[in-house]
Amino acid sequence: MRALQGYLRLGGFLALSALPAEGHAKAWFLQKPPPATQKQKTSEERGVNPCASPDPGFGIYSPWNRGVSIGQMILPVHGGVSRTGEFDAMIHFHGHEPVRKEWVKVMDGAMLVGIDLGNGSGPYETTFADKSNLSRLLTSIEQTVAAHTQRKDVHLRRLGLSAWSAGYGAIQRILEDPAMRQRVDAVVLLDGLHCGYKPDSLNDLQLGPFMEFARLAAAGKKLMFVSHSSIIPPGYASTTETANFLIDTLGGKAVRARPRGGDPMGLELISQFSRGGFHVRGFSGNGKLDHCAQIGLYRDVLRIHIKPRWKSPRGTG
């Protein structure tokens, strides 16, 4: 007999949450992070407070521009647009200031839009369930670039979506639209993909848009990077389980990995998987600092994956 945990509110709607059937072997992706991963490093051990990292300023980028319909945007002081008027942009959901600190260390042309809508995935899902909000946002991005560069011929070329923590809710709604799945070139999820449970599995209805994009990335048509900590949340699926579910969807399995000295903010790598343009990296740690430290990965994702892939028009300060 299945032990039903009841209903759990996730992101503004109800998701059925149930334990696996008694006596039924658990799927590998439902395994919780092992006890060895349930640890927390101090800021002193890390050499930095991941939740309040040093501010490098804006580099070649201008201060936040609030001309977009939602959130704010940074653009190169000069340039960032090709001779034919093309430019690239990443829309990031949740934690726009910490992400900006990592962006300016690497990027030198593509635009960054930062959107913060509050706590929990609900406000992000609600806002972008209305397709007109995204349409207005994309139009306003082009208008902001046109005004900043004093050019009328600008248009968006490459579009990326990234999120930390609860910001995944916006990306979920955006990717529900097949046309937007084709429009978006890259998705980056930093310790931010949750869902409810079904008996013996995860809620694949909620994860469906991410599953579809993961398939496109694995086939080499898109780029998708997913990271997870080892935090075990109460009553709903962890980022470990959801990341492993995506891997399982592709017929794969995460492999163990050893910590690397170069990982930022004290992160310790424990697992990984790559196929085509789909990449998952798992890390130990179950506390607030471990969650914030995931933002430190953004710099490497941009440097290793986004920047070489996009080859965005250069900008200057």
Give an account of the 3D structure.
The chain is α/β, with parallel strands linked by helices. It has a single domain, classed as Rossmann fold, CATH 3.40.50. Helices cover 32% and strands 23% of the residues. The chain has ten helices and 15 strands. It has a nine-stranded mixed sheet, with helices on both faces. Strand 13 and strand 14 (278-283) form a beta hairpin. Helix 2 packs across helix 10. The longest helix is centred in the middle third of the chain and has 19 residues, at 131-149. It is globular. The relative contact order is 0.19.
Q: Numbering strands along the chain, what is their spatial order in the largest sheet?
A: 3-6-5-7-8-11-14-13-12
Distance between the termini: 64 Å
Structural class: alpha/beta
Question: How many H/I helices?
Answer: 10
Roughly what percent helix? Answer: 25-40%
Q: Segments where pLDDT lies below 50 for 5+ residues? A: 1-24
Report the sheet with the most strands, covering strand number, pairing sense and barrel closure. 9 strands, mixed
What is the typical, i.e. mean, pLDDT? 92
CATH class, please? Alpha Beta
Reading the helices and strands in chain order gives: EEHEEEHEHHEHHEEEHEHEEEHHE
The total beta strand count reads 15
Spatial shape: globular
Name the beta content range.
Answer: 15-25%
| Quaternary form | single chain
